[in-house]
């Protein structure tokens, strides 16, 4: 979508902060590009998205996080990546920079203190026992009960936005798809939409439907993986095994249809890089039939296993007001009453023409996050049915041409864990001048800290997996 960007004075920047603090606006993104900082906001009542620009004086700008906490980590990141300081920020510690970018020391990190009798600290990570990306979790506990959890992320920082600067659109699209590998379709989808909006290009209808098909197939694979992994963390291995089989079936269908298990590099600016294989629709129909045969029995098994329910119900509750304040999307937000799904709210093609429900629950616990996934699986199956039935004929790719001038575009796409934001500026030479990518995890990771407080240490893996935030997508 083309979002007019408005340059504001300190007064205008302050007015936006006032509206964020009052809950009138939701923060979609905050990023820097010397000498400017950018803020993307969403007004839920009207569905309007706005992008504001503030030109920093002496490398500083008024802190958003001072009055709106969801911005704090983003401001710390702006300082690390752009050198711009938020005046009045309540937390000036480095975030992605672990103290080794510009100086060899100090390497220590000042975790926030907690006071009380009988408290002790437990350090977990950044190296973990399983096949998992690195992240450090510092628990302050009284016996088994968690008093505070503080995260330390940034270990998977790869400089992806810097790598994009000056890149061709094709090269940048590949980089976007590698921001978080489990959401490669969603990131490629969002980047392509942003590029097409900037260049005012219309995508062939067949390609539009293929994009949604791949997005739903990616959603299915990840939801199956998550449901099984959550149950495994509650020592219910049979669900893990059975959901793992369904996930593998989705990945095999993906490679049969589009030549890659994760469908990487298939969505490109202008459409899709390849048509579906000749036997692709038959493969997908067989997949849907198998899921509909097996998955209901797994749901019944989950719902009727008392020992499993004992671990998931009332564990890791996220308060609805926190979810609203942070604008948390995906199953984290929808399990705590926030009725937001970019597919429905924005109605981007082809979802505006497809029938589906957005499941919303209010309990906000691990069990609710599992059930949101379960119900979204059902909706994705119905969406794939509709997409295959309505798939138009025709071309799948249109050529892109530089406009010979600077142009900008923005896209918000619903990935399996929530909304992914891509803001893109294309230079007059047709190359990327600046691209900002924002994963849903930016606004979910802080809520995990609140969800774990008051629970026992042994329930952290369960809470963590029920969020399944992205390390790579967050660390950029």
State the main characteristics.
single chain; about 475 residues; alpha+beta; Beta Polymerase, domain 2; Cytochrome-c3 Hydrogenase, chain B; 2 domains; three-stranded antiparallel β-sheet; 14 strands; globular
What does this structure look like?
The structure is a single chain. The protein starts with a strand and ends with a helix. It folds into two domains: 5-87, NADH:ubiquinone oxidoreductase Nqo5 subunit (Beta Polymerase, domain 2, 2-Layer Sandwich); 160-440, Cytochrome-c3 Hydrogenase, chain B (Orthogonal Bundle), CATH 1.10.645. The longest helix is centred in the middle third of the chain and has 29 residues, at 205-233. α7 (237-258) runs antiparallel to α8 and α14 packs antiparallel against α15. The strands form five sheets. It has a four-stranded mixed beta sheet with strand order 1-4-3-2. Strands 7-8-9 form a three-stranded antiparallel beta sheet. The protein has 476 residues and is an alpha+beta fold. The protein has helices spanning 10-22, 72-82, 160-164, 169-176, 184-199, 205-233, 237-258, 280-303, 306-312, 320-326, 330-334, 342-345, 366-390, 445-452, 460-467, 471-475; strands spanning 5-7, 26-33, 36-43, 48-55, 60-62, 85-87, 119-124, 136-142, 145-152, 267-268, 271-272, 407-415, 418-426, 432-438.
